[in-house]
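Q: Structure tokens for this one, please.
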Amino acid sequence: MKKPTTLFSTLGKIEGLTIAAVLVVLFGAFMIAAPRVFLGYQIYGAFLQTVPPELVLAVGLTLVITAGEIDLSFPAVVAFSGFLFAWGFSHVGSSLVGLLIALAGGGLVGYLNGFLVARLRVPSIMATLASQFFWYGVTILLAGGLQYNMPQLQSDPIHTILTGRLFGVVPTEAFWSLGITVLFWFILNRHVFGEAIMFIGDNPNVARVMGIRVEATRIKLFTVMGVLAAVAGLLLTSEMNVFFPTQGEGFLLSVMAAVFIGGTSIAGGVGLIAGTFFGAYIIGSLQAGVVASGIGGYWVQLVEGVVMAASVVLNIVIGEGRFGRLSRALRRWTTAPDAQSSPEGSE
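A: Here is the predicted structure, written as tokens:
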């Protein structure tokens, strides 16, 4: 017997719609609680400036988790690639050279992570955790524990391309992060590489039987993650015109939260890039919104936790079609008792 479809079950099949609705409701609540801040455009410009590096990282991590793996090294890659960019700009005198070696450095770290995981069979959580400590250490040693101030970078074309202001208002990094999101949505959902990632995350043994080169795909996957972490490092360093050795710290939990809020399965096999996009903006706007609403002290983290948990639960409930069953149950409970039973004396 075919199950009846409901509006909620139909809408739940649209990728990212649930989390987009949560983001809209969240902004609506902030507009009511802090109208002076959230009814102006400045706060949204700030979000378009601060969220893109984390969004780029979250897109890459979505692919990794979809394959049933994890990467804990990307905060260190952000710092390492930022150092390479700053070194190339300051010592070679070319921002383009700095950009290229930063991307190459991120790709190298990702390749080494993939080699450890795919070829040497080291669990990804251990391989990338060790990698994080190692590359943070390398970055601090190479930088001598010092930061690089690059005020002259602001007049460089690379700065304008990466983190300039379109029409003098909209940060260009917002467009870079959006373009990366769209690109990898198509790769994950419309390309053989994305199909291989989902098959490996679901069952790597079955993937091998189907002819997928599991080890090679994993190496490519971690390499892509390393390059995306380098892009995030470039955006961060270019926006601030400063490199500091620990600039990737604090990204780990927020990026992971964005991925899981977006609906990507921790067990692998299911990845939702669109959900990650909206999840990143939920995470990126929560603290500023809660503080602007006048909630202070320990309530900030409590409210953030409630919103995150509610987002995940709502995504699961609607995504699995349980919202439709719940709504039908509510209709039965609210139906008048005399409408449910046959009238007396009808015989």
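A few notes: DSSP finds 17 helices and four strands in the chain. The longest helix spans residues 214-240.
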